[in-house]
Each structure stands twice: as structure tokens, then as C-alpha cells.
Target: Sulfatase
Amino acid sequence: MNKSLLLVPMGLSAIGAQAKNKAAADCDKPLNIIYIMTDDHSFQTISCYDGRYNRTPNLDRLASEGVRFDNGFVSNSISGPSRAVLMTGKHSHKNGFMRNDGTPFNGAQQTFPKLLQKAGYQTAIIGKWHLMSTPTGFDHWEILPGQGSYYNPDFITPEGTHREHGYVTNLITDKGIDYLEHRDKSKPFCLLLHHKAVHRIWMSDTCDLNAYEDQTFPTPETFWDDYAGRPAAADQEMSIDKDMDLAYDLKMLDSTINTPLKGAIVHGELARMTPEQRAQWDAVYQPLIDTFLVQNLSGKELAEWKYQRYMRDYLKSVKSLDDNIGRLMEYLEREGLLENTVIVYTSDQGFYMGEHGWFDKRFMYEESFRTPLLVRLPDCWTSAKRGQVVDELVQNIDYAPTILSLAGAAVPEDMQGVSFVPLLKGEKPKSWRDALYYHYYEFPGEHRVRRHYGIRTERYKLIHFYGHDIDQWELYDLKRDPMELHNRYDDPKMAKVQTKLHERLEQLREQYDDQSE
Model:
């Protein structure tokens, strides 16, 4: 029997308990923690994961000086809910923030920053919050309103809202370094740097506007997926061909091009630019617009042109992220902070880079379910193996318990995740989880992805799409069908696997106390 289907007790809380105070004991001083979360950053566009598209030397450095997780996943692939999971170590149905368009996050509940404060840590969050509430549990906070803006963004502080000149990724890094400069240096710290990038509509710093313009990217093998046997995948609104807006997403701003979302960029991001910024922008994009109008593309040619423009704009934003990671690392090295600081890099979920013909996220399919996770180990962990790759299944419910364990603080029993500090140490716990649970709720909603929940093991995935207009199961053998093109549900050859997956799924729904649909 495949070990991913064994129906055994997980013992995860026991693992977490063993790791509680283990991390701090290796170093003379308490560990500092910097948690960097980007938005919609795909693992495909980090070169230590996938070298087809770009190079990210500074992110690759985090992996080479620490740990790369190859099976890091989220529990609900959408921004706000993912952030609520981070804060609480609990699935969406337990922390109460299930949808981006739902009620504000309940800041009165237990969160890991509050527990760190009780353990003597200074806590700070700078950048994207996106939880429709005022941050709690932080000694210092400065957040973007909603999604925030790429150019000349507004920031909210306890004193009010103000606007700053510059590019948002640079500004968030500046603010993070400034916080580190002026913190109380007698106490350990936990700093959350939450970037807006690489969120739609993928606008780069002016210094990177010409980046990638001379590159042509390979079209994904599944770009023209016909979604056979997968009705939920067929009926969505995240297609590069049909749903990517020429003006809003791809910046083809001309009086002859009128699209549903054109006003959102004209009166939004572009209106925030200074004359100097706009001149730099137009110097690059106006020639692209002129060429596009002459080409008069349609059909498959237009769709594949859209894909190339999407990739170029997206990767320009990634370049600024990587450059700013390098700038932060230079500061930490100069100040001697790498000695006892753990650096975590991840995204709030994965993203589609044209796979299945899509952009965006939400589905339990691999590209959006899976997320990058890199952890740079502190220099004082001399016994830990650097550059290791971890294959165990980890999930964003594990981040809060892990951060608490790194700080030497107790992990509450009601947190549903488990500390992966043993994995950072190169250990292989025998009772590590054999399956992941996922639940997405936001339908009706943007992009029309149906509500669904499911289970992923080492080899298999079972998904249930449900709601007023759908009741559909999907089953994939990820070893034989890694691109998830062939739904094997009700295939007689998969009958035993299907039965065991259903049993294990119900066990997980009971374990996590999720009866919601």
C-alpha cells in the first residue's frame, strides 16, 4: 500500500511539543525572526525551484543558506484567508475569515504575534494586511489599505493615513530596515514584511520597465487545456485568452481600445504617478501599444501574445522583489544580525503562469495550492545542514506554531498546524502528516471558481466541487498525471484508492472539525 494512504494517527501536536524550546537552545541569544510574505508569487518564477523563466539570486541565496521546501501548500488559496491562517495557525473555518469579501478578521482572537509579545518579543508588521481590520498583537504596524498601490502608495498607521512617494516594494523594504534600526535592541524581534507584489496588475519599478522585453517565454504544455472531464475547471473567469483585460492587465491604453476594466487603471494606478514616473512609463509602453495596434492580432495569436506580455510584466515585479531581498540581506549582514536571525520567505499562495491557460489562483490544483517556502537558517545553527531540500508535506497552518517554536514559546493545543522546526534541523519525524486538507469558499465571487474541499497525499488528490450548480468529484494520480489533466474518479482501476481517499478525507474533516459546505 502507498504510504500516503496509510490511515494512521498523526501525532502532530506531540511533534510540536518536542520542538517548543529546542530551537532557542542552539544559540546563545533568542532567535530573531523575519517573515517575508509576497502576494501571488509562483514557485515557478523562483530560480531555485524552476529555472525556465528568470533568475532570482537573492531568493536562491536563502535556499542555499537554509532550507527549500518542495511540498509547501496553503489551506485556502486566496489572499485574506491565507493571512488569517498565518496569524492563527488554524484553518479558515476555525479562524472565521473564509473569504476576501467576508466579515473583518476578528483581531480579539489568539494570534502568534500576541503570544510572542507575552514571550518578551517585539512584534511588527509592515506592508499588506488585507484583513479588513486593525492589526492587533503588534508593537509597530504600518499597513497598506486593501490591496495597496504600486506607485506612491498610501500607508495606514495608528496615527492615520498618509501617502509616500516611490515604488511600493522599495518603500516596504525601507520601512523594514528603518524599523530594525530603531527597535529596542535589548529585545528579540519578529518582523513581518508583507509585500504587495506580485499581485495583479503587475506594475514594475521604473528602473525595471525594460526588463524581459527581449525574452520570449515557452508556452505551457497545458495552455490550450480543453478541461475534458473537469466541468469546474471549464467554467471559470481566469483565462488569459478570454478574461485577461487588454487595458487593465496588459496596459494597452489607446482611445480605440475600450475594455470593462480600462477605467480602473486609468483612474487608479496611473493617476497616482508623478509626471516623471508617467513619462518613464509611456516611453516603454507607448511603442508597445503602437506595435500592437499595427499587428491587429486575433484568435490563438492574440492569446499567446497576451501570455508573453503577462509574463514580462509579472517577472519585472519579481525582479524588484528579489533585488529588495538582496538589499535587506546586505543590511542584516552589515549589522551582524544573520548570526541569530531566521528568515522565512513565502507567498500567500501559488499562481498560474499560463498553466491550463490561466492566471490567478483559488483552485486546489498544484500551481495555486502549492506555495514557495524558503527558510534561511541562523548562523548559530552550526549543526543544521544548509542547502537541504525538504519533501515532507507542510502547510501554512504550520507557520504560526513554527515561529513560536523558533522563539522558544509554547504552542497552544488549539492550533491546528505543527512546528516544522525538526524538518529545519534535518530530522525525519516518523509520524509526520501523510495528507493535507484544503477548503475554498469564495463563490459566487471574482473569477467564478466553485467552492471545493479536498485531500492531497504524497501521490493522490481528491477534490469535491460543490454548491447550488455543481456536485462533482475529481481524482488525480499525481505521479502519472502531474499536470492534472485526467480525472480518474469512478475509474474502476482506481476504486481502492478512491475508497481510501474518501475515508482519509472524512478523517481530516473530523480532525480539523470542518463540517462546513
Q: What stands out?
A: The longest strand covers residues 460-467. The chain has a mean pLDDT of 94. The longest helix spans residues 299-334. The chain has 15 helices and 16 strands.
